[in-house]
Amino acid sequence: MSQQLAYVIITPYSLHKSRTGGIISRLISRTGLELVAARMFAPGPELTQKYADAIVSPNDPQDKFIQELLRDYVLKNFMPDPKTGRRRRVMMLLFRGEDAVRKIRSVIGNLSPDRLVGETIRDTYGDLIMEDGKVRYFEPAVLAAPTPDEAEAKLKLWARYSDTDGGGLENVIAYPPDASPERTLVLIKPDNFRFPTGRPGNVIDFFSRTGLFIVGIKVHRMSVAEAMEFYAPVREVLRSKLKGVVAARAKAALEKEFGFTLSSDEERALGELLGPGFGESQFASIVRFMSGRAPSECPPDQLRQPGTEKCIALIYEGLNAVAKIRDVLGPTDPSKAPPGSIRREFGSNIMVNAAHASDSPESARREMAIVNVGENNFRREVEAFYGGL
């Protein structure tokens, strides 16, 4: 069976209720599809109207009643707030794989007032409540295309508006007049993507405890050059910080090999001699872990090519965002992280520790510039797959 693209739109309500992680977890773990792109949107009136119009289609096998419900829902909930003009957030996820549209639909489920079990995403997070033949409450939780042809038409529509209505969103959250919100960067690291698993969504679910808002998302493959720049502040720390560790290990190895005891001065000398090289080796391992290759393994003309390792980059916004995210994440060493923190739950060691988060507003600005969460690889994937828009 040929490859397909399938999309999932997480609704403003699902985002507001911090259900994003649970939804992503189910989509990845239960479909086995590859998440190839993700983008935040704040749809304007034009995109919202065109998408709503496209929902009611003779090519859609869904009942026309459900189509019209979805159309009306989009017009009401995707349009900018009529009182303030503030646009609403939605998240677009793009999956690729064999039979992708059907697999996504099976995990999302159907809309029915009679469904009581929690098997699908809509069973768990959606609602359709009817009384006396009238709809009293309707929340679909997510939106997706019913057929490959419908997926193509709607993906091309969203891709055409993905520069003007998507990216790193601004002015989509209301704060008190005297509030000073921060932004911080989170990377869901490559160790969460070794095989299709719910871990990326589970990590995002942990971050939802902070009450912060996702205003940017990107599926990113870090180049060797980006990894070197991103972790540059760590490089000198590793060269100096590890001298003591290297000295003790070298002393023990030499004493065992040669059968005599080294003095403390000789141990320190070993640290000065070997520490910088060991630090460089550790730095190269970090770059390889994040990008797929160490600097020495990458030809100069390939330094800026996207790497082989995948991560999800997220921008969180809110009051005290940096501190709140770091608190939930836990310290770098998972063995020292408190119970209930992300790194204690999902980390393996100091490098393979589930996620990265900026340690200050200044670091966040620097790191966000390197990763460029607003880069439109969503449109690029759609154009490449369909041969244009």
Characteristic terms for this protein:
single chain, 389 residues, alpha+beta, Alpha-Beta Plaits, 4-stranded antiparallel beta sheet, 16 helices, 17% strand
Describe the structure.
The structure is a single chain. By secondary structure, the chain is an alpha+beta fold. Among the domains are: about 1-165 and about 375-389, Alpha-Beta Plaits (2-Layer Sandwich), CATH 3.30.70; about 225-300, no CATH class. It contains 16 helices and 10 strands. It has helices at about 10-15, 20-30, 45-55, 65-75, 100-110, 120-125, 150-160, 200-205, 225-230, 230-240, 245-260, 265-290, 320-330, 340-345, 360-370, 375-385, and strands at about 5-10, 35-40, 90-100, 125-130, 135-140, 140-145, 180-190, 215-220, 310-320, 355. The strands form 3 sheets. Strands 2-3-1-6 form a 4-stranded antiparallel beta sheet, sandwiched between helices. The protein has a 4-stranded antiparallel beta sheet with strand order 8-9-7-10, sandwiched between helices. Strands 4-5 form a two-stranded antiparallel ribbon. A hairpin with a 2-residue loop joins strand 4 (about 125-130) and strand 5. The chain is elongated and about 90 Å long. The mean pLDDT is about 90.
